[in-house]
Fold:
Amino acid sequence: MEKTFHMTSQQFRDAGKQLIDWLADYYEQVERYPVLAQVTPGEIRTSLPSEPPASGTDTQRIIQELDSKILPGITHWQSPNFFAYFPANASEPSVLGDLVSSGLGVQGMLWATSPSCTEVEMQVLDWLAKMLALPEAFLSSGSGGGVIQDSASSSSLCAILAARERATGFRSNEDGCREELIAYTSTQAHSSIEKDVKVAGIGRRNLRLIDVDADFAMRPELLEKSIEEDERARKLPFFVCATVGTTSSLAFDPLEAIGRICKKHKLWLHVDAAMAGTAALCPEFRQIQRGLELADSYCFDAHKWMFTNFDCSCFFVADRATLTRTLDVLPEYLRNQAAASDVVFEYRNWHVPLGRRFRALKLWFVIRHYGVEGLQFHVRRHVELAQTFLRWVREDSRFELMAPAPLNLICFRLKGADQMNEELLRRLNRSGKLYLSHTRLNGKFTIRFCVAQTRTELQHVQQAWDAIRKEAESLLAVAHP
Amino acid sequence: MEKTFHMTSQQFRDAGKQLIDWLADYYEQVERYPVLAQVTPGEIRTSLPSEPPASGTDTQRIIQELDSKILPGITHWQSPNFFAYFPANASEPSVLGDLVSSGLGVQGMLWATSPSCTEVEMQVLDWLAKMLALPEAFLSSGSGGGVIQDSASSSSLCAILAARERATGFRSNEDGCREELIAYTSTQAHSSIEKDVKVAGIGRRNLRLIDVDADFAMRPELLEKSIEEDERARKLPFFVCATVGTTSSLAFDPLEAIGRICKKHKLWLHVDAAMAGTAALCPEFRQIQRGLELADSYCFDAHKWMFTNFDCSCFFVADRATLTRTLDVLPEYLRNQAAASDVVFEYRNWHVPLGRRFRALKLWFVIRHYGVEGLQFHVRRHVELAQTFLRWVREDSRFELMAPAPLNLICFRLKGADQMNEELLRRLNRSGKLYLSHTRLNGKFTIRFCVAQTRTELQHVQQAWDAIRKEAESLLAVAHP
Structure:
């Protein structure tokens, strides 16, 4: 038989099952690895051949190299001792759903190119809107609907683009950005808003960073003042991004007040709830999104805190016609009968890329596996664990809290110099026992502790606190011997 | 023991292995399904519950529903009888690499957040540059380098943004698009260029669609004329997208002539080789990219014709500093020591999204499994099969060829009315035996036949041709009884 270089069906079955076990073993043993990869820049790369392989190799060797060459350079986001940044918590059902998506390898660029890819996405995003008690307008049965994007950066870019076109009567798409469009967000908003504003041709000097109150929430009176100044200067205010849970400290902008200002001045309100949005699965946390009915668009990342592996940013709009008119292009080679239908969405007009994989499948696996009650259980547990940690920090007078912490992110620091806190963070991360990240609040270097990993339990939070106290003691002993 | 709702390790092992077998069986049986899903709009959706599930369900039930509810709405991109659009050919090694990526669930937004994610990507894209014999400048050892994007649309958007900033001295990022920037591409370019130009705030009226020659390739003399007219009108020409293998008919723009014009007038040249780029794995096809050393950026999609499942668009730039300066934002919470290093890239500055999954892993699996020779083998085979089909069309006087077909796409039609060709296409696709798509060339409805599926063999091309002839005969019998 002629050599085809393909993997045979039997080889795929064997290697696939081996890799399923490899992953299951990995999850069981993940605590053995240092959470933060302990390699130096360039170390992984130089371990790989500089020339591409002329011939193929067997799968066993590839898996061996996965262990020996790739794994040492992995920072373990799925470790229960990962408390850095925001989480990207995966789960077994999600990984399985994604496996099927990779394997089917369909393109959902048009409804016709895989109807399930479009329709499961429509349905699952409607489920999510109901699970989170989002306003009715965000449902596909109304004037809006949801779509999966790769990241919150891309979701907010699409919001900005739709807002830009609504404000300019779709002239920006035609002639380019000719008016002085002005966008607003708080000083605490995610950096992607600045990036998006640059991408969209608006220019970052036309992004106003509104100051925040003592809780790091946007001050609506300053927002309105800024809008009115710009209006008087004959500029064109068009867009506000409010944040439900800022990256830095999980601050919550007052949506109702901001929303009323947006309505009054006819600005598009986008609400970025990238991580915290998931909390609204639980009725007791839904106050974070009070006022959301005033928003034009909303985004939260199921790939952050909802057990769904990246990428799965869920973006909802109240008026889909504006979004799709903004992003529509229809060349001959994409024309098809179903596109004319009103029953189904053509999702290629909901984001920048044309191609799209079947990402709804992993979300469907997750929601079907956990059910609403399972997801609520874990969100509540994470918040409870974070609140336990918060109590410990409060009870230890050597530490200070730097921001309100109503959910699962605690911002704290050792009372004392920034340098000592930087050293504390460095030592903890270098230990490999846990991984934390930092921010700067009121000018002070602040440590962030975020609880949302799939397998994080009380013992991990306890171990983390023990490690933090121990390193703090050793640092304080040197500072005040 | 308390109920945790998580899948246990054993359940994951069992269900994972079951789904590996499910996929292996699917590949073995894929020809049994109609290639194009035979459902009506809304059919899949209404088969799913309208309310989200309050409680979870067991994995067996989820897999059953995958079969009974999802699969009927799948258009089978991995079928060897898929000849539509461009392919999205996956392979077993790719699916396995992607499984590991889903499972590890790392974020490569910074080098530090998983060094392997950055370094394997740098290395594998350098491998690819060598495998394709791309110009040295596109290697990371030079001034450039490669990055994986989700799609060619996003790659060309980044090219346009970098070009926009280079042309305006980075003032567009600061102040917004204030100058009348003009972009150029051919009438045959992919629709994403128009979309990108709108996204970037340039406006589609400032995109010039240059006419093509009889082979559908851009006419460089018309390009230069158009640039000079715009220069005389005090506009700012800044960007040209040349296509190596257009979507419509796989036409090849003359890169050398276009490149010389771009150098002379100081325009950024982006080369979009989304599908055809893969052909350059074989030295005998490399003439398609002659002149590429004059380009500023280049893109081809490994997820189209290189056995790597979506998403994996490979984007190369000759001057990475301009790209990263265009897309850089650095808030406090992303600062870290390694970022200051010269040894590694910070890929978050190479595209719009901040988050990024470990996509290089599937590419690494594919290249390690097939080796250069295995990939060359399949590209050559696909071209050979397409050329066989081409010969059959040529030898049948009832059909006409509509465009040159040097590689793996054949554009043809029945001599006669558009309506008859539309009906031919409709009947073929409705039969479920094969899937073809269409375009319009010289005003005529044209059928596209693209050979690039992983498992397409001579028998499938033969069956396709038989089906086409049979349907054509029946249509012609009615037209000329």
Observations:
- The domain at 106-357 of chain A is CATH 3.40.640.10 (Aspartate Aminotransferase; domain 2).
